[in-house]
Amino acid sequence: MLFILFSYRGYSSSVVTLKEQDGVVLLDSNYFESIDNQGHIIPNKTLFFFTPNETSFFKYRFTLENKTKEPINRVVVSYNYTIDEFRMYFNYSQQGLDTLIFTNTIPLKDRYVHHKQPVIPITLEPGEKVDVEIWLRNESAYQYTFALYSYSEFFTHFMLENMYFGIFYGIIVFVLLFSLFYVAYFRDQVVLFYFLFTLGQIFHMMFRDGTGLYIISEHPEWAEILKSLSRATFSVFLLFYTKAFLGVSNQSKLGKIINALIIIRTVYVIIMLMDYTNITFHMEMFIILFCTLISIRSYFRTGRDAIFMSLGLVVLSITYFVYYCSVLFIPTWGKVGFFLFYYGVAFESVLMTLALIERFKQIQIEAMSRTETNTMLEQKVEERTEELNLFLYSASHDIRGPLKSIEGICKLAKVDDTIPKEQLLDMILKKVASLENYVKDLNAVTKIKSNTNQIKLIDFERIHQQITEQFSTLVKSQNVSVTLHCHSSISNYYFDEFSYRIIYQNVLENAIKYADKEKNNSFLHVTIKPSMDDVTIVFEDNGIGIPDNILPKIFLMFYRGNENSREDTGLGLYIVKLIVEKWKGSIKVDSKLKVGTTFTIVLPNKRPNRLG
Ligand code: ADP
Q1: Whose CA is closest to atom 20 on ligand 1?
Q2: Which residues, 6+ apart, have CB-to-CB distance to 72 below 8 Å?
Q3: Candidate of 437, 445, 508, 562 to mutate for ligand 1, largest count of ligand atoms within 8 Å of Cβ
């Protein structure tokens, strides 16, 4: 069967022969004669139909003839759904009548074929010949294409198209619902902008492909304005969202540029509500590229979750660029550009959703660690308050003890002058010395807690000598032999000297103080093993040892485990532990009653290049 479209009465520029099996025949204006309003024939050698004067009709003529013996049913489809007015006049030669078949401003529901694009059914009986005149009036469209479809081709083509749209809208509506859930759950400004941006994208795409017409089926004349608005919404929300996602502040230079772009785009759409220029395309391309570049920049600067955001925008940029070129410069890319952009948007939406998920993972982790830190801090405050109360109670109690004794001695001296003055003064001096000791220890606690460190190269032997000399009287009275064995192969051990001395003094003093007087070979062996990373100090004595039930308590504040240690402060080992913990070292004690005690202390090496 042959379906022939040919030159007729001299006003068609060339003959086109259409074969039945073609299924779809593109009606491009190369084959048509165009006629202006005065009836002048205008040479029109372009692929697309154009309306040079947007306010009045432009006409195109051609003839159809069915030379077959079968009736032919076809539909003429306009690829442009936003033509202001579109008419087709069929001049049936048998009847000699002009018949208006279609006007595009007819609401969707009243159309012959309910389709978003103008679709005109044509029937040609065998041998029938018809002159067709297309009347076009449009202010916005820059080019129009028409095609003749067989019914089956029409059905397949638009079914497939609807399916592609369906998949696209399915994805993007899912993304929209997902972001809506996020908005409801997190009440976060960034997601709100993402939700609005997605909504803007749906709005934009619907009025780009005409599906939006079904929503306003009673008002096809709104299509142009809505299309214009949808494109502005898309750009403005993209800017808002990018700004919010990347945390760009209004005060920053970039923030000001983004705000300026938002204002320019908004003002433009208000002024150019019916935009018949290509400026919108340039603006869209610019805004997408701009957002992509600042996201990539943010990714390289801060890393974090901007990776998916950047990827999403790169996909959007590439696909929009192909679409942009297909519309403005390379019409042959049209088909690819059209759907590529759709799936670019879908893919971009999915990547942007991943960006949101990543962002919220981050926020939740931060929130969780914040609550954890808060609980930890609260606990610490509680512990510290308890510690402080105990500290104040014990300190005042322990200071009062010697003071009361001094008061007692003074009263005794007043009433009893038989006691030698020397003896009384000695007693007072002893009490004063113990008070001084106490205050010294309290002072050390405060100093350690106040974090004033002075990292120095530690001279183990010198410090050992100085401290043993300090306790020489005690060493003598307790008859203890003190030895030092220092593995000094590594000499560059650094630590806070004050802390080191306090530890050393306290452990050494205890070992001497708690020497077993029943033994005549009392000793304290100190072994120091420094390494690149730390130092291990071992204090091994053969003193009275610590009973098992006391051992777990010796590091507690004000704990005195020995009846002989009444005069002591009970702060020594507490201070030692405090320092060891502060420097993230370790302390271990092994003790056996009547056999002896070994303290093993490990302290990190704070070599200057390792500080921090
Ligand atoms: P104190 O001021 O009473 O010495 P410390 O905190 O220094 O307080 O020590 C707590 C307790 O641990 C001591 O009272 C003592 O019973 C026990 N202790 C510490 N070191 C030794 C040791 N080398 N030998 C035996 N007992 C010790």
Answers
A1: 510
A2: 1, 3, 66, 122, 123, 124
A3: 562
Those residues whose C-beta lies under 8 Å from the C-beta of residue 348, and which sit 6 or more positions away, are 312, 313, 315, 316, 319
Of all atoms in ligand 1, which is nearest to the CA of residue 507? 20
How far is residue 117's CA from residue 217's CA, in Å, rounded to a whole number?
Answer: 12
Q: Which of 41-45, 51-55, 231-235, 275-279 has the lowest mean pLDDT?
A: 41-45
Contact 594, 541 (CB under 8 A): no
Task: Specify the ligand 1 atom closest to the Cα of 556.
Answer: 6
pLDDT at 489: 62
Rounded to the nearest angstrom, the distance between the alpha carbon of 553 and the centre of ligand 1 is 10
**Beta-sheet pairing, 481-486 with 146-150:** unpaired
Quick count: other Cβ atoms within 10 Å of Cβ 30? 14
- What pLDDT, in 10s, does the model give residues 510-533? 999 999 989 989 999 999 998 888
What is the distance in A from the centroid of ligand 1 to the CA of 511?
8
The residues near 324 (Cβ < 8 Å, ≥ 6 apart) are 281, 284, 285, 337
d(CA 3, CA 156): 20
pLDDT of residue 8: 32
Question: Among 554, 555, 563, 564, which residue has the most ligand 1 atoms within 8 Å of its CB, making it the best to mutate?
Answer: 554
Which pLDDT tens digit goes with each residue over 19-72?
A: 555 578 788 777 777 777 777 777 766 777 877 777 788 888 877 777 777 788
pLDDT at 98 (0 to 100): 63
For the chain, the C-alpha Rg in angstroms (whole number) is: 47
Please, what sign has the CA dihedral across residues 583, 588, 594, 595? negative
**Alpha-carbon gap, residue 536 to 521, rounded angstroms:** 25
Which residue has the CA at smallest separation from atom 4 of ligand 1? 570
Exposure of 467 by Cβ count < 10 A (0-12 exposed, 13-18 middle, 19+ buried)? middle
> What stretch of H or E contains 123?
strand 119-124
